Amino acid sequence: MPICVECGAPVTNLYTEYSKGNIHLTHCEKCKKFADKYIEHDFVIIFIDMLLHKPQVYRHLLFNRLEYRDYGVGPNVLKLGILLILFDVYIKWLRLEIYYENIPFIEQPLFLQYLYILFLCVLEFIVFQFGVRMAVSLYIRDKYAIFKYNYITMALIISSFGKIILILKVIWTYNDREYSWLINIVNIVVLTSNLEAITVFLDIGYFKSFAIIIFGLGLKILAQMFFIQVTDSSLLMTLLSI
Ligand SMILES: [Zn+2]
Q1: In this model, does residue 240 exceed pLDDT 90?
Q2: Which residues contact 81 (CB under 8 A, 6 or more apart)?
Q3: For residue 20, what are the contacts with CB-CB under 8 A and spacing of at least 6?
Q4: What count of other Cβ atoms lies within 10 Å of the Cβ of residue 196?
Q5: 112: confidence class by pLDDT, cuts 50, 70, 90
Q6: What are the TM regions of this chain, as residue ranges (predicted)?
Q7: Which three-class secondary structure state does DSSP give residue 75?
């Protein structure tokens, strides 16, 4: 059932269509506002509100926009997830270029280097997702008879859209210092967006969702440390520090 993006109350429908293109938005019985104003907004407005961390836009995306699924993630979310992993690969690759301009970081063919970084990014992605899901399962234990963990994954993927800002690196030329700042800003935007999405989806306070995200990040760092031990690579430290 869809919900009101303003107060979270369930509503029977979001709009009534009188004729093609002529719709009337439903008013929420609880808060008396439009149940979902984003029905009539285009993607640019939605994107700006995501950047502004508005809880309403995450309620719209997670509860009203996504097609209901018992398991797995929707094809569009999956595409975004793959794109975000490739962005991570790109960020790490650039980092290596900046720090090791004249030194090949691994004496291997280029495609093996790429696979190496790709493997690391996929590992980070999976461990983070697993960590957050584990923290959520500990938190909601006995609270719900059925809980759709696939929506946790979708919430994290959608709210990591901020990494796309790094496409600016392709369009404009930054110096190393500016680029480091850009990465730091993007990391903060992604972290706070993840926080907002989990807060909205679980309908909990920011402190609790912060603890859940930190648990996921902690597990990811542990996995990275394990990787360092296994590969014994000081160059890997550079990769992991971003
Ligand atoms: Zn409402």
Answers
A1: no
A2: 73, 125, 157
A3: none
A4: 21
A5: confident
A6: 77-94, 114-140, 152-175, 181-202, 209-230
A7: helix
- The CA 82 to ligand 1 mean position distance, Å, reads 34
Residue 34 CA to ligand 1 centre (angstroms): 7
C-beta of residue 62 within 8 angstroms of C-beta of residue 86? no
* Centre of ligand 1 from the C-alpha of residue 53, in Å: 19
What is the reported pLDDT for 72? 87
Residue 242's pLDDT is: 45
Which of 89-103, 159-173, 201-215 tops mean pLDDT? 201-215
CA 36 to centroid of ligand 1, rounded, Å: 9
Q: How far is the CA of 46 from the centre of ligand 1 (A)?
A: 19
Q: How far is CA 20 from CA 12, 16, 36, in A?
A: 21, 11, 19
Separation of CA 51 and ligand 1 centre (Å):
22
Which DSSP state fits 18? E
Does the structure show a pLDDT above 80 at 56? yes
44 CA to middle of ligand 1, Å? 23
Residue-level length of the chain: 242
Instruction: Give the whole-angstrom CA distance, residue 86 versus residue 89.
Output: 5
Ligand 1 centroid to residue 33 C-alpha, Å? 6
Cα 66 from chain centroid (whole Å): 15
pLDDT digits (tens, 9 = 90+) for 57-82: 999 999 999 888 888 898 999 999 99
Q: Are 4 and 33 in contact (CB under 8 A)?
A: yes
Domain ranges of the chain: 15-65, 75-240
CA–centroid distance, residue 4 to ligand 1 (Å): 5
